Amino acid sequence: MTAAPAALRVEGLHAGYHGGLVLHGVGLHVEAGTVQALVGRNGAGKTTLIHTIAGLLRPYSGMVEIGGVDLAGKPAHRVARAGVGLVPQGRRVFPSLTVAEHLRLAAAGRGRDPMWTVERVLELLPRLGERLDHRGDQLSGGEQQMLAIGRALLTQPRLLLLDEPTEGLALDLAARVRGLLTGLAEAGLSMLLVEQRLDHAIEVADRIAVLDYGRVVFDAPTAQVRADPTTVQSMLSIDQPLPQGS
Ligand SMILES: Nc1ncnc2c1ncn2[C@@H]1O[C@H](COP(=O)(O)OP(=O)(O)O)[C@@H](O)[C@H]1O
Ligand SMILES: [Mg+2]
């Protein structure tokens, strides 16, 4: 029996802006059906990596393999069609479109018998069902985040890229988003989760990697990080709260 191809394999990825380097040869894997968290200081290159994987930024060199197919440098629509869903940093909800319009747009052209339908997304995220006629700019931060996640699910992802999905949310809402992601992970969805807080990453992820100055400087199973959070803590900003129970 051959193992299923990794949901994501990034190797030797170099990327940046205007010829300048931000990612200096990044290597990162997401095994199928697992959650890989990526933490790192502000400006480390996390969003640049997410954008490069999603096809929004062309790498200078390196490999981005999705489900065994190299898609490095391919445009975002090709990467999306290969099964990559993106929940971007800052949510990027359209201010003038209603929730219903966002969902309808995301669900368009997805073929027969999609795994994720608008109905199923509304079952998972009932709050959105109560807000169908509200415009993006009328939603709370938490509602916008739910919409960003629902919209990404409607693209039928096999790999979900999430860039700081709890940024700027009240603690209870952030916890609800993490609960939602845990449920999706238990259902078998592969994820690359960029998180600012190590304790939150530990809650959701199977493995935790640290990106620093555009390089992966640490990558280990979550159990190892839980047993010794200070090693990773020391690679991050100074005032990270320790995970509970440690
Ligand atoms: N569009 C851009 N043009 C030029 N430089 C950028 C752009 N986006 C990000 N950068 C730079 O790339 C580096 C990494 O940024 P980013 O990937 O956003 O980091 P992170 O998400 O880890 O906070 C930073 O130095 C940032 O200023
Ligand atoms: Mg970022």
From TrEMBL:
Pfam families: ABC_tran (PF00005). The keyword tRNA processing does not apply. Residues 8-238 form the ABC transporter domain. Keywords: Amino-acid transport, ATP-binding, Nucleotide-binding, Transport. InterPro entries: AAA+_ATPase (IPR003593), ABC_transporter-like_ATP-bd (IPR003439), ABC_transporter-like_CS (IPR017871), BCAA_Transport_ATP-bd_LivF (IPR052156), P-loop_NTPase (IPR027417). Belongs to the ABC transporter superfamily. This is ABC transporter ATP-binding protein.
